[in-house]
Amino acid sequence: MTSNPSPPGPVSRRTLLSIPAAAAGIGLAGCGSLTDSLSGKTQVRQWNLLAGADGAVMTEMHERFAAEHPDIELQATTFGWGTPFYTRLVMGASGGNAANIATIHVSRLKSLSPETLLSPIEIDEIVEAGLDPGDFPPDVWDKCFHEDRLYCIPIDTHALVNYYNRTICEQAGVLTPDRTLMETHGVEEYFDLLRAVKDVTGTYGTSLDTFAGWRQFWAWYRQQDGEWIFHEDDFELDDDKALAAIEPLYRMAEEGLCPTISDGGQTAANFENGAAGLVQVGNWEIVRFRAFSEAEGFDFSMAEMPDFYGNRRTQGDSHGYVLPYQNSWDPAVRKATVQYAAWMLKHSFDWGAGGGHTPAYLPVTESEEYQSLEPNAEYSGVVDNVQFDPEVWFAGSAARIYDEVGAVLQQVYALAMTPEEALALIKERAHALLALPNPVD
Amino acid sequence: MTTDTTTPQEATEGPPPRMSTPPSPKRRSWTGLWFVLPFTAVYALFLVWPTVLGLYYSFTDKSLTGRPVSWVGWENWAETFGDERAWDALWNTAVFTLYSTPPLVILAIVFALLVNRARKMGWFLRMAFFAPFVIPVSVVTMIWIWMYQPDGGLINHYLQMLGVQSAETPTLWLQDEGRAMWSVVITTVWWTIGFNFLLFLAALQTIPKDVYEASAIDGANSWQQLWRITLPLLKRTTALVIVLQLIASLRIFDQMYLMTGGGPNRTTEVAIHYIYIAGFEGYRIGYASALSYVLFVLILIVSIVQFRLFSRKED
């Protein structure tokens, strides 16, 4: 069901790991909130879904923000990634009592019914806080609008990438002389690379999250310029291209080049304990692997998605800040809220360096300091190759089509379903979703 | 002095009319009301009112997005009856109930009988069987998810050590369509059996010893004592446990949501999970309310049938 940090419903090791981060967030909020609000501090309540390793980076940034803004009391709360978070956000906002600011995936903006559940952000407001609309990549910025009103401030771009274990890959002979992963072209070349790596590890070539198959599917479907366009009661999906995107998953699992079953926690563990020489997960896992590297002397780096069909497009999304609908906005709180968002963006170098995300705030991304950051520089091309999910109310990160397709593809990895059966079922499920009344239009 | 004599007179004259005249019980109920008020208020606010509101919503297109609500009549209800996914979910709930209720009742009796016989380690066994029930569901599911891990999970590890399973093809517990339901049933039995066990144990301890002594004198062996004395005397408790267990099993959601997320391929998607999906992921509070009422009515029917069956037997 979910996968970014937490795998399907089941509580993973990673969710367990994230508890300290969440506790830290709550702890921060718990710093004598009553006495503080009595002492006249402006209270800003923030909700986030960063239950993964990147949540720890955000908590550190929050501590710095709190230290620099003694007049603002920031209460940050981390919820379980995906549906649990969005459910709370929607329910809180529909009652007018949600947090003042919340993180979302930009792809989910339309599914959150901006007119009724979010509070529009005035350009003047963000300019006053020191931001400029020109400071953001135009394609991401445009996605933050709904019916010509700004509802979201983008924080970053993140995507599916390939991590590789240098030690294993070197033994397998798949590194270039400058110790980066060899570039491959086409499915077969990449499978040969995986075979060579599997010969070294004895278990798998690559590790990946078999519960989050949507990401791989969408990346390889989009590499073929595949489109998934939704109409009122039907959709256009290219069957041949979709099959070409699903087949590699089946073949990879069948040949034992990847696990047949692996949740979020195990996916990362397979890479760390050397059962796999590569792992195909989101850039946010860098925090975890870096910590492991520091503890165990683990030599890894990152590369873009492998080129299967002529380019290196990958599935991705952006995080953004939204202001949930409030029954009443205290002007001082509103100002402090926007001020908080602006501060986080201006300091998003840490978000990029620590969390592995590519900051959306261009003054940070274009800085020399960021450009020379490793291993971020090695996958910097990812920003141009990111493919957002289809445009329909049930699409986007952790949205229903993501869950539904992921659940079907899990059966493909488990070899319980052929690619043809999977495609037929995906189409059936998409039709069922399309038949539901659209709650946001 | 005069007051002293008059009051007892009033008191002695008082009681008889109090018993016969209706106004006095009324006076008594006013004070009683204050004691039940806290509970009644919470009950009305968080149970009765949402139940009524839910019934109203089931006739509207109420959405979580806060859009204007309009009356749609029986539309949601009609959709419920034609919704294949809803019926599949109800079927899965029924399957879970059928799988989980017998072991939860029978094993509870067996354990209670065993513990009741134990002389020395009784306290330890009581604690051992009841302890899991105290653990929160999130912890229980996390422990079992780890045990069920195909690679490196405790269960597969020991199966491989015993040579029952090869390391090449580890058994998929929660991810296999045929086994996921059973896996959750096993977890549920381990987790909740303590409650039924305790009810049976308490009932066993109320059976007077002399019944057994008398039967022993008449030459009954222990097997006959079990079938002719113990089990018949446990009948009332068994009826209660079965009803409570059926209701608990029909309400299954937590373990499924946390352990399988309804997968693989919706084979463990239960009724409440689908209501959750329709309401909170699909924002359709109106439709989810109608679905809830269908489940509510089904549970009601099962409970009534149950009570009827058992009360008839007792007669």
Structure description:
- The complex is a heterodimer of chains A (441) and B (315).
- By secondary structure, chain A is α/β, with parallel strands linked by helices.
- Chain A has 2 domains: 13-155 and 318-366, Periplasmic binding protein-like II (D-Maltodextrin-Binding Protein, domain 2); 160-316 and 387-435, Periplasmic binding protein-like II (D-Maltodextrin-Binding Protein, domain 2, 3-Layer(aba) Sandwich).
- Chain A contains 20 helices and 16 strands.
- The radius of gyration of chain A is 21 Å and the shape is globular.
- Chain B is built from 15 helices and no strands.
- Chain B has 2 domains: 2-57, no CATH class; 84-314, MetI-like fold.
- Chain B is an all-alpha fold.
- Chain B is globular and about 75 Å long.
* Fraction in beta strands of chain A: 5-15%
Structural class estimated from helices and strands of chain B: mainly alpha
The major β-sheet of chain B equals: none
Instruction: Summarize the amount of helix of chain A as a percent range.
Output: 40-55%
Quickly list its features.
heterodimer, A: 441 residues, alpha/beta, D-Maltodextrin-Binding Protein, domain 2, seven-stranded mixed sheet, five-stranded mixed sheet, 20 helices, 16 strands, 46% helix, 15% strand, disordered N terminus, B: 315 residues, mainly alpha, MetI-like fold, 2 domains, 15 helices, 0% strand
Write the SSE topology:
The complex is a heterodimer of chains A (441) and B (315).
Chain A: H1 13-29, H2 33-38, E1 42-48, H3 54-68, E2 72-78, H4 83-94, E3 101-105, H5 114-117, H6 123-128, H7 138-143, E4 145-146, E5 149-150, E6 152-154, E7 156-165, H8 166-171, H9 186-201, E8 206-208, H10 213-223, E9 228-230, E10 235-237, H11 239-254, H12 264-272, E11 278-282, H13 286-296, E12 300-303, E13 314-317, E14 319-322, H14 331-346, H15 348-355, E15 358-359, H16 362-365, H17 368-371, H18 382-385, E16 386-387, H19 400-413, H20 419-435
Parallel strand pairs in A: 1-2, 1-3, 8-11, 13-16
Antiparallel strand pairs in A: 3-14, 4-5, 6-14, 7-11, 7-12, 7-13, 7-15, 9-10
Helix pairs in contact in A: 1-3, 3-15, 10-11, 11-20, 19-20
Chain B: H1 2-13, H2 15-20, H3 23-57, H4 75-82, H5 84-117, H6 122-134, H7 137-148, H8 154-161, H9 180-206, H10 209-217, H11 222-233, H12 235-250, H13 254-259, H14 271-281, H15 285-314
